[in-house]
Amino acid sequence: MMKKLLLITVIFAALILPGCKIGASDAASGKLRVGIVFDIGGKDDKSFNAAAWEGVKRAAQEFPIKLRDVEPGEPTSIEPSMRAFAERGYDLIIGVGFAQAPIMMQVAKDYPNIHFAIIDGAIEAPNVASLLFKEQEGSFLVGYIAGKTTKSDRIGFVGGMDIPLIHKFETGYEEGAKYANPKIQVFQNYVGINDSAWNNPGKGKELAKAQIERGADIIFQAAGNSGLGVFDAAEETNKLAIGVDANQNWVKPGFILTSMMKRIDVAVYNTVRDLVAGKFVGGVHMNGLENDGVGYALDNYNRPLLPQTVLDDVERVKKEIIAGKIKVTDAMAK
Amino acid sequence: METLLQIINLSLLASMIRLSTPLILAALGGLFSERSGVINIALEGMMLSGAFTAAAATAKSGNPWLGLLCAALAGVLVACLHAVATIQFKADQVVVGTAINILFLGIPALASGAMFESTGATPQLPREQVLPDWNIPLIDRIPKLNEVLSGHKPIVYFALLMVPVTYYILFKTRFGLRLRAVGENPEAADTAGVSVARLRYAGVLVSGMLAAIGGAYLSIGQNSLFTRNMTAGRGFIALAALIFGKWHPVGAFFACLLFGVAEAISIRMQGVVQIPVQFIQIIPYVLTLIVLAGFIGRAIPPKALGIPYTKEQ
Fold this sequence. Notes:
heterodimer; A: 334 residues; alpha/beta; Rossmann fold; six-stranded parallel beta sheet; six-stranded mixed beta sheet; 10 helices; 12 strands; 40% helix; B: 313 residues; mainly alpha; 14 helices
């Protein structure tokens, strides 16, 4: 009897504890209610999810909304989390990450009166805003910076999960590097082929070390938490890394050349703003260089690493991309 | 030939040692527990507890050695939970182990929320707060060998040292003899006046400590932070290594090295050889299957493994 009781207690605790926060009451108080469902990486990845979290938090400060978030620990808990928000009649549900697109497509169909927003996914429904980014353009710019900065003519790319979305980063980066420096060699690796690839800094570090051994002196990571291992490798070997999604220059000052900023925060913020103003529009919202949806990060942490001539060049390249004079391949368009 | 050299070289061996370290410690931990007759499927949870505690304590105190100590203590505490449930209350060992694994998917998220206002990650430590790289005095001067064996984190040497130490404890000391006796034939050991419960407690607690140190290597040695579920199944791989090392420290050690080298090769092959990533990444597992199916004979577990012992009146 005792042992059964103990077991039940342990299992119960394991299931309930992580979920505690969600139980809190969120009865409507006239405020619009916004729910956000994060990707597997969780909102502390200092990158992709962190940027989305930044955006909704800023919105929650400025507008009278009630904000609730869920971090599904595994892919199977995404759907119940999303449906839980829908069943409670939230006004806007934001899904972070391409993996949620098929799920949201279904849920959005079942709840046509609720607004949805999906990051990195395209859903054709009038009540869903699809927030898409031209990652290839921002990656082209950081690739260009890497191509101008490398001393060994060899640079690397470490991706998280091997999926078409991350190929967009890789292709843009490589094209940008080659545009700056035609004889450059670009190594590319992926951490893995399932969700755990976003959460494996050890492997990210090993991959980066292997690239550094082969002569790479700058490595661009698009790998969520695994990318933090790439930063460690750069610091240990005194090389440079390039951050992704959020401005990550602060994570390892002096070792991060720049960050490919994907302004998920702005896109999410704008969506909430539109909702509050009653101007929510479904359909594709494309964010590229022209509307500062993507870009490279420049602040006091990395300014010493970037000479003015490089900055002038990269601004010129940016204008040419916007004007359509330089064509960057979209790896997902094929 | 040139591509082959890019994959198989000295740094591959160094990488193998780094990747094997957490596995070796967890497998040796599992060995102590299972040789005493207690199945330890909770290695994964114990590693997670160690990894999180090490990173959290280091972030709070700024001292990785203190972090390491806290991790070892945390591992012992978690092992206590396992031991009390399985030895004292004779609960099913597999179920308790699974419960602990699930528990430690959740606890770091909860604790990091309270400590760092985060959900499952700890802040990234500056480089001087991660365990230092140690150069080994003599080996350091031998070319080639120094590239492989020197300049690792202290936990790496600890793991390598623990292999002969475990062998010695298990096969050359009275404690080891009794531990094995309790795992093979507890009735006989009991008749001879050995306390089955006490030895099993010892086995499980040591197991928790070693697995937690293995976990600490991930968060304050190899990396500089804890991220959610960062062990990514290493506890289970260690368990597999233990089984196809036939519950022997040296066998388990080589099994861990095999996993380590397979992963190191898969890391190095990517981008050098024109093979899809998906294929490269199954190499460690295919290798395991081949080894398990073809090269080792039957692995015979300790006879009393998994059976709670009830003292005869």
